[in-house]
């Protein structure tokens, strides 16, 4: 069994997270339940930040809040000295409600509305990542109306796609995000932005993929961008203050995954950018990165009450839980894989192979296929590991199932940070026909 962070087995033989008994968590807060190991989130954040600090490199580590956005999580990010990446008015509003410093907020998205951009400008956030020409003109109009100056980055597609151990060199014109670096779009965007007196063009942003286990893709992206920056310095006189290489740092979901430590990503990125800046006689830019999943993914565990089972002789045994695609849609969307144990007896010897089914009225609602487990007993609590990213944030009310509660655990203390939805919540905004 692989233990993440502070997870272990206590004297009662139960799974323990942050010094708190997982069985007691299920009993006290109900199931399904999202549980976050706060100490592990802090460790991950410090792993990224400290490497920049130790190498005396100017940097911002921005938590990509789309992975898991709540008031408590945003406040935790602030405690750890992180910046914040938001991609919608809702995420920005959450950050504002949490009291997050607006000057450390970066706003992403490929179709920001006028209302969202106005909110960002009014809140004086640190940076708007401009994604396309339509947005640039919209933001120009807002800045003129309000007579304010706004920091921007230009998002580019550098022709690199990366995932796990693979990277692909592409033209990458076919992407909904950003200005293409190769076909002249990015340069056209830059020359349109630079003369506008209400823009302060800080630099360039890219994001090359997700769940990446090697640094090759980041290095190739840096090479392509810095090469272009050298051209722009020569021809346009623009020198980038910021190089944002995005996120996508991988985590371990199953034994098939072999991620590298945050410090290794950062060290190799720093080394390459320093080398390139020296070769092209550019000033060393401030490096920004945007970890999301790698901060919270393996810090999250979802607890479920085990219910019905169905044995199809010679084919498969199904074991159903009281959640499913309404609280974790990733297996249905992406065929995502997870590991799990019974929280009430995590060290018990597996005696059968079962497939974990959700309770939604949907044949595709399967959480885990072919999971080795001990034979089912009454009151079993299933703990599914690494559900901290894109679980709660993608939760839904399919079949009118209320969304689960969220609990933070640290140093033996459990804190409820999101209440469980009720049936009353489900109909709160419904209006009668008459």
TrEMBL record:
It is an enzyme of class 4 (lyase). Residues 33-388 form the Orn/DAP/Arg decarboxylase 2 C-terminal domain. Its EC number is 4.1.1.20. Residues 40-296 form the Orn/DAP/Arg decarboxylase 2 N-terminal domain. Pyridoxal 5'-phosphate binds at residues 248, 290-293, 390. One of its GO terms (molecular function) is diaminopimelate decarboxylase activity. It catalyses: meso-2,6-diaminopimelate + H(+) = L-lysine + CO2. Its cofactor is pyridoxal 5'-phosphate. Pathway: Amino-acid biosynthesis; L-lysine biosynthesis via DAP pathway; L-lysine from DL-2,6-diaminopimelate: step 1/1. It holds the Pfam family Orn_DAP_Arg_deC. One of its GO terms (biological process) is lysine biosynthetic process via diaminopimelate. The active site is at residue 361. The modification N6-(pyridoxal phosphate)lysine is found at residue 66. Substrate binds at residues 293, 330, 334, 362, 390. It comes from the Bacteria. Keywords: Amino-acid biosynthesis, Decarboxylase, Lyase, Lysine biosynthesis, Pyridoxal phosphate. Belongs to the Orn/Lys/Arg decarboxylase class-II family. LysA subfamily. Specifically catalyzes the decarboxylation of meso-diaminopimelate (meso-DAP) to L-lysine. Homodimer. This is Diaminopimelate decarboxylase. The gene is lysA.
């Amino acid at each position: 069994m692989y233990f993440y962070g502070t997870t272990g087995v206590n004297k009662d033989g139960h799974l323990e997270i942050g010094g708190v008994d997982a069985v007691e968590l299920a009993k006290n807060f109900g199931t399904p339940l999202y549980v976050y190991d706060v100490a592990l989130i802090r460790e991950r954040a410090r792993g990224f930040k400290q490497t920049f600090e130790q190498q005396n490199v100017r940097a911002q580590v921005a938590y990509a809040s789309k992975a898991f956005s709540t008031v408590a999580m945003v406040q935790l990010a602030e405690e750890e000295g992180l910046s914040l990446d938001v991609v919608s008015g809702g995420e920005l509003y959450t950050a504002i409600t949490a009291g997050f410093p607006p000057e450390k907020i970066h706003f992403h998205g490929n179709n920001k509305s006028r209302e969202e951009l106005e909110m960002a400008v009014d809140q004086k956030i640190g940076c708007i990542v401009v994604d396309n020409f339509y947005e640039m003109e919209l933001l120009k109009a807002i800045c003129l109306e309000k007579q304010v100056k706004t920091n921007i980055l230009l998002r580019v597609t550098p022709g690199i796609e990366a995932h796990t151990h693979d990277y692909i060199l592409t033209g990458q014109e076919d992407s909904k995000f950003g200005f293409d670096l190769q076909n002249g779009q990015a340069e056209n965007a830059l020359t349109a932005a630079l003369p506008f007196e209400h823009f302060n063009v800080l630099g360039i942003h890219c994001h090359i993929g997700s769940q990446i286990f090697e640094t090759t893709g980041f290095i190739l992206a840096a090479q392509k961008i810095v090469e272009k920056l050298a051209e722009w310095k020569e021809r346009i006189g623009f020198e980038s203050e910021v190089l944002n290489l995005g996120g996508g740092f991988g985590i371990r979901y199953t034994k098939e995954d072999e991620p590298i430590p945050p410090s290794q990503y950062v060290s190799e990125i720093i080394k390459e950018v320093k080398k390139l800046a020296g070769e092209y006689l550019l000033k060393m830019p401030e490096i920004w990165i945007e970890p999301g999943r790698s901060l919270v993914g393996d810090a999250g565990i979802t607890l479920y009450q085990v219910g019905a089972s169905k044995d199809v002789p010679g084919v498969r045994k199904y074991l159903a839980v009281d959640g499913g695609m309404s609280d974790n849609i990733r297996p249905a969307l992406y065929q995502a894989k997870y590991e799990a144990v019974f929280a009430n007896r995590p060290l018990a010897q597996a005696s059968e192979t079962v497939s974990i089914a959700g309770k939604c009225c949907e044949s595709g609602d399967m959480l885990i296929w072919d999971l080795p487990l001990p034979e089912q007993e009454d009151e079993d609590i299933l703990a599914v590991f690494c559900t901290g990213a894109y679980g709660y944030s993608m939760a839904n009310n399919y079949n009118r199932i209320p969304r689960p509660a969220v609990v933070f655990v640290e140093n033996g203390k459990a804190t409820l940070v999101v209440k469980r939805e009720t049936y009353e919540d489900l109909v709160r905004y419904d209006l009668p026909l008459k």
